[in-house]
Amino acid sequence: MTADPPGLAFAYDLRPVRVVFGHGALAQLPAELAALDRGRVLLLATAGRAETLARLRGALGARVAGVFDQAAEHVPAAVVERALAEVKRANPDVCVSVGGGSAIGLGKAIARDTGLMLAAVPTTYAGSEMTSIWGITGETGKRTGREARVAPRLVLYDPELTLSLPPAVSAASGMNAMAHAAEALYAAHADPGTLALAEEAARILATSLPRVVAAPGDRAARAEALAGAHLAGRALELAAMGLHHRICHVLGGTFGLPHARTHAIVLPHVVAFNAPAATVAMRRLARALGADEAAAGLARLNRALGLTGTLGDLGLRPADIPRAAAEVVAAAYANPRPVTAEAVHAILEAALRGEVSPRAAAG
Ligand code: NAD
After folding, report:
1. C-alpha count within 13 angstroms, C-beta hemisphere, residue 131
2. What is the pLDDT, as a whole number, of residue 6?
3. 225 CA distance to ligand 1 centroid (A)?
4. 274 within ligand 1 shell (Cβ under 6 A)
5. How much is the mean pLDDT over the chain?
6. Which of the four pLDDT bands, split at 50, 70 and 90, describes residue 345?
7. Cβ contact 115:93 at 8 Å
8. Segment 263-319, tens digit of pLDDT
9. How many CB atoms are closer than 10 A to CB 262?
10. How far apart are CA 21 and CA 9, in angstroms?
11. CA torsion, points 141, 344, 232, 15, in degrees to nearest 10?
12. Pocket test for ligand 1, best of 169, 237, 238, 255 (most atoms within 8 A of CB)
């Protein structure tokens, strides 16, 4: 029996989602919610987003039944409990998450528990708004899953709302989106359309993110980066993620490392590891990055974005590595190259010290 050529054996579900994208699109939110027959709104955000929340309150007026602004990274179970109490009090018809993956993740946890419809107004590049992937972190670490009912039914992108996202957060969040695109490109059984989405996402992100970091008020660059993140989120939804996402899941869920910066640091290392087993994907990724070689292109982009930190800077200690490596290999996940605890150990050590692989250093 011969193996299927890459990309030519696939199956996927498409679920209904309305996407509205454009400068000033926030003004369309009331009409879009009305079209979905949703009246009372509970707004969800992370702390410190008062200005953005004020803009949403301005747009939605009396439809706002409540505001919960305590969303936090990796969706702590205790925060979900508090938000569910606010749901009970406000009795909304829809939750509207405004912000990044943390606010959207909280909306998904609420949808999972209550069945409440979720709408998302993303203001980072995490891409969670386009997926049915949920995550909740409790005492035993982070649990994740895929369920159609948690996915936002409406996604409204207004690049104006991203102008305030600090350059360092934009850079790391953008590399989180890049990670979705990179792993989609070598995902087993990704369909040809998803591969095209992923390559285009990587190309747009690679060209727009340096402009966003250099000039955070550049509206065109902001819109392009957000569009790249949108495509990467769609690729994340339609393709199975591999070793890179598994490592970041463990580092965030068990060791409390910050999500986006961890993605940025780990990605070139995992891509270098997977390169020999995914030559077609690597050619596409390198082409999208305008580089001779994919891992080198990613390392170069990180440097251009000022992302020069190490996992050590984020709080991982050398003594954590054996436990992290064991946890990474304890679960089954797709990856083009077979993974051993030793290989993960080596990747984490290099990323902890800030070394780049010889492959990535060439960039
Ligand atoms: P985040 O949502 O925590 O936001 C990062 C910071 O930026 C926060 O302090 C937030 O308040 C701030 N911020 C957001 N928008 C801003 C704006 N416009 N101006 C100024 N500040 C702004 O971080 P993130 O990287 O977007 O999301 C990370 C979380 O998302 C993690 O928990 C991760 O697991 C999850 N995630 C989930 C998926 C999925 O498909 N389920 C995909 C990617 C990420």
Report:
1. 27
2. 56
3. 15
4. no
5. 95
6. very high
7. no
8. 999 999 999 999 999 999 999 999 999 999 999 999 999 999 999 999 999 999 999
9. 27
10. 32
11. -50
12. 169
**Residue 96 β-bridge partners:** 43, 119
| CB-based contacts of 205, cutoff 8 Å, min separation 6 | 125, 174, 177, 178, 181, 225, 228, 229, 232
Q: Which amino acid is at 218?
A: D
**What pairing do the DSSP bridges indicate for beta strands 141-146 and 133-138?**
antiparallel
Strands 94-99, 41-46: pairing is parallel
Instruction: Specify the amino acid at residue 97.
Output: S
Q: How far apart are CA 120 and CA 221, in angstroms?
A: 21
Across residues 15-27, what is the average pLDDT? 97
Q: Ligand 1 test: best mutation among 70, 110, 124, most atoms within 8 Å of CB?
A: 124
Q: Residue of the nearest CA to atom 21 in ligand 1?
A: 165
This model's pTM is above 0.90: yes
Which residues make beta-bridge pairs with 42? 66, 95
